[in-house]
Amino acid sequence: MNTNLIANTTVPTETLYDFTVIGGGIVGLSAAMALGQKYPDAQILVVEKESDWAPHQTGHNSGVIHSGIYYKPGSLKAKFSREGNLSLVQFCQKHGIDYDICGKIIIATETAEIPLLENIYQRGLANELQVEKITAEAVKEIEPHVSCLAAIRVPSTGIISYKQVCQKYAELVKLNGGELRLNTKVERIFTNNNNHILETNQGSFQTKFIINCAGLQSDRVAKLNQVDPQIQIVPFRGEYYELVPEKRYLVKHLIYPVPNPNFPFLGVHFTRMIDGTIHAGPNAVLSLKREGYHKTDINLRDAAEVLTYPGFWKLAAKYYGVGLEEIIRSFSKAAFVKSLQRLIPEIEAKDLIPTHAGVRAQALANDGQLVDDFLLIKRPNSLHVCNAPSPAATSSLAIGEAIVAEILK
Fold this sequence. Notes:
By secondary structure, the chain is α+β, with helices and mostly antiparallel strands. Helix content is 32%, strand content 26%. The chain has 12 helices and 20 strands. It has helices at 3-7, 26-38, 76-95, 114-126, 136-142, 162-175, 218-224, 300-307, 310-318, 320-331, 333-341, 396-408, and strands spanning 16-22, 44-47, 64-65, 99-100, 104-108, 132-135, 150-154, 158-160, 179-181, 186-192, 195-200, 203-212, 232-243, 254-257, 269-272, 278-281, 285-286, 352-364, 375-379, 382-387. Strands 5, 6, 7, 13, 14, 15, 16, 17 and 18 form a 9-stranded mixed beta sheet that branches. Strands 1, 2, 9, 10, 11, 12, 19 and 20 form an 8-stranded mixed beta sheet that branches. Strands 3-8-4 form a 3-stranded antiparallel beta sheet. It is globular and about 65 Å long.
């Protein structure tokens, strides 16, 4: 089914929708799908400002089905990723979407990382995951080219194409009676008799309830709706390299380092993609454009918002050392390769070619604290998803159900 053609069907502006989802990434489409299943007679609209579904965070991520091992027990991330992992696999089986639960290893390469690896193992147990400590010798049987002191094996991690998942979500939204509109940017939101009026570049739409799943623009959309999210989205670009085809044999599954426990990024790692390619990365550098996938991408408004935000400077002061390392990795291939050689020593610069980058929409509070969990802000006639970075794609079905539950409340 060509959802792009369906999505551009003319919708009369006098239609009063029960629910309008702003944002056609994986979370927005999942929310629309869940609403259609719960309320089959409801008028549901999804608007996306780009010309295709999942154009930003979803379409640029590494395609990993996460297990939830890293997240604080009891957090939404831990709960939703565990539930989402299972439901996503079932969804793929039902709809014939390619995936591979290949498992991953998290490896310690220095003695100082052993206690941190143990903490991750204990967190995995607390999150009710199947995790296994394995020796360096056992690692060689799984990943012959990896060098480490110890490791954890997480068998429930997998790989998938989230773009393909989103296309199926969009098809099901339409099948349930939902309306899909691409190339439709929300520019203003007004309230009239408890209904919202969305002014867009494609005309005005009336709706009883707004679900804001705008990702990199979610804080701005919340403010259009007169909601102060008390955070600001700060974009971090993650840059990747790809192994040349003749060196793909070096990586069999997914290989991760022990992450910095105080930073919400997992460190450069190796990911086998569903198409057979091997990606290495990402780093994490401040982007001066919210949707900027190249080093030279700068948007004056986006840059000014970040550089005048007190929370950013408090964050920068706290993590200036880590931030400097990430910047160096961005501009120095040698530094990037050195990080990868901690995992696979025989990797050389000639084995890597640049590939796509992604941008993470990270919510940051005014006090400089990174929002560590999914953030859903409920108002009487709206719900705003204002922090949904990784593992949101894995968790998408669970988040969609949670949004319906919040609306029911």
